[in-house]
Specification:
about 55% helix; single chain; mainly alpha
């Protein structure tokens, strides 16, 4: 395996505004440095870096096999040697332990990023996103956009955004039941544009207790719960989710633009605007209210969930019983068997007697 090339270099320096900044360049979606290069990075000797790495592995913070790779590099004598390189995870772990001005700068940078993540829920490297890397360095800009679209189209987030935009409608009343009903109409139109089915139709058709995970493709937590089965988006496949995300993003941008221009619009007008928007973008337009009501869909999904949960619990009990029997069989094999004579008493040899 060849050694990482120069674009794998790390540069750590003091930015003009006084904030420590780290520039990282990836190779094969990871960064690999020798102990010597890590020592140069943090301005410490190799023995110190080696001690830190040894402690990191002994304490179980990282597993050596997952962060160490051998690369064949050409030395100054023209010969090639297998040399251990350490991944970005190991380099960062050393940064939290090393005592040097560079180590301090790294920890200040890392703490600021962690604080931003904990407070805001995200961290962005604005400069890297504004200035695309070279062709040999991974660019995650498209992935970021896709994740943002997915977040914007989540049921709770989309409801809040639609509510904020429609709050500027001349006849908006947050306490009216019509407001919730209006949101359901908008949601159904968006789902129909993406899949050809309204949200209740998707739930009613795809909720199936006999299928793995009841037919859901995504859910909150480790296992499917009752609250997961009444969300239409949880039944969509990957392509349907991407299509829905794009439509929702375009429409929310359009609605926000309309609201910011302070145009007086009534609630009912938004339905017409959405239909016009979908036609302009050559998407399906829901002609009526759909064939299934939300109440009917929820009732069917919850009924399927009851059957699904019973089957799941029964399977868990059967698996537990099978596991118990297997363990008992292993214990029985481990117990030594006594040799018995025909009369039923065990044979024992006594010293000095045949």
């Amino acid at each position: 395996m060849s050694a990482p090339e120069s674009q794998g270099e790390i540069i750590l320096y003091q930015a003009k505004d006084g904030e420590p900044r780290v520039e990282v360049r990836f190779v094969d979606e990871n960064l690999w440095l020798t102990q010597k290069l890590i020592a140069d990075l943090y301005q410490k000797d190799v023995r110190t870096i080696n001690d830190h790495l040894r402690n990191i592995f002994e304490e179980g913070e990282l597993v050596p096999d997952s962060v160490i790779r051998n690369f064949r590099i050409t030395a100054g004598d023209g010969k090639t040697y297998d040399t251990m390189h350490y991944s970005l995870e190991a380099i960062l772990a050393v940064g939290y332990r090393v005592r040097s001005p560079r180590g301090t700068a790294f920890r200040q940078w890392a703490t600021a990023r962690l604080r931003e993540y904990l407070l805001k829920g995200f961290v962005l490297d604005d400069e890297r996103l504004k200035n695309p890397p070279g062709p040999r360095v991974p660019d995650y800009f498209d992935e970021m956009l896709e994740r943002i679209r997915d977040i914007r189209s989540s049921e709770r987030r989309m409801y809040l955004q639609v509510r904020n935009v429609f709050a500027l409608a001349a006849d908006f009343d947050p306490h009216e039941n019509d407001t919730q009903l209006f949101y359901q109409i908008i949601q159904n139109k968006l789902h129909f544009a993406a899949t050809g089915k309204t949200a209740p139709e998707l739930i009613a058709e795809r909720a199936d207790n006999t299928r793995p995970n009841m037919g859901l493709t995504s859910w909150k937590g480790e296992v499917v719960r009752k609250t997961d089965v009444i969300l239409a988006k949880n039944y969509l496949n990957e392509e349907e989710i991407k299509e829905l995300n794009r439509i929702v993003t375009m429409f929310l941008d359009f609605a926000e633009d309309q609201a910011r221009r302070r145009k007086q619009v009534f609630m009912r007008s938004w339905q017409e605007k959405l239909d016009e928007f979908l036609r302009f973008n050559e998407r399906r337009v829901l002609p009526g209210a759909g064939a299934v009501s939300r109440e009917e869909a929820d009732k069917r999904a919850l009924g399927e969930y009851e059957q699904f949960d019973k089957l799941r619990l029964a399977q868990a009990d059967a698996d537990a019983e099978q596991d118990t029997m297997r363990r008992l069989a292993e214990i029985a094999k481990a117990v030594p068997k006594r040799k018995r004579i025909a009369g039923g008493t065990s044979t024992r040899s006594k010293k000095g007697k045949p």
